[in-house]
Amino acid sequence: MAGLATSGSNPDVSLLYDINGLADDAPGWFDRTMEFVGEYGLMLGMVLLVLWCWWTMRKRAATLDDAATSLAAIVWAPLAAGIAVLINIPIRGFVERPRPFVDHEGLEVLIDGKTDFSFVSDHATLAMAMGVALFVANRKFGIAGIALAVLEGFCRVYMGVHYPTDVIGGFALGTAVALLLSPVAMALLTPVTKAMARSGRVGWLVRERGSLREAAGTREAQSESGTEPGPDVRDAASERDLAA
Where would I find the Phosphatidic acid phosphatase type 2/haloperoxidase domain in this sequence (predicted)? Predict the structure, then answer.
């Protein structure tokens, strides 16, 4: 199956020229920045976001089980990205869509060496899979991850290495993998993270001991006084429900 868009009258191609055309008027330093951000920077940002989410949630976990469930949801983010890219390999081989600069002249291509097929975008797939999986674990971090994924998709078109539909296809694939396989992943990962939580050697990866003792003491004190749980406890419970 050859290219999905070969005509300039195609909206996909028109949007490609509109977005990539912004690079013509941009200063050289901005194009170099977009090249780095689109190829490496945003993916690095996604990894740091996952680590930040892990560091935050391990401190706010109310119980060992809560901490283990949260970690399982966070670990699923990079795993979902990896699985989505593996699924994309046969898709790219079946569609065999050339890169846009192969079939269309006048594009400002910001990075060389892209000789593989274009549909579906690996970068868009990776970024959206991680963003959606993070949303399952924690809404705030998930929204930030999805925003980074959208920016990643824009950068790939701006760089002249993908059609807009390559990016949209990547978003769809990443979202489908992150959501549809999440129940199975959680069922497999949660027992592992629970075992880690009870380990003296790697338990720190799952939860912060001091935060758990503090949370337990807070709940006991509130139970004895008959007061409602504080906002931190309610937030932890809310995040636990999302991770489950």
Answer: 71-182
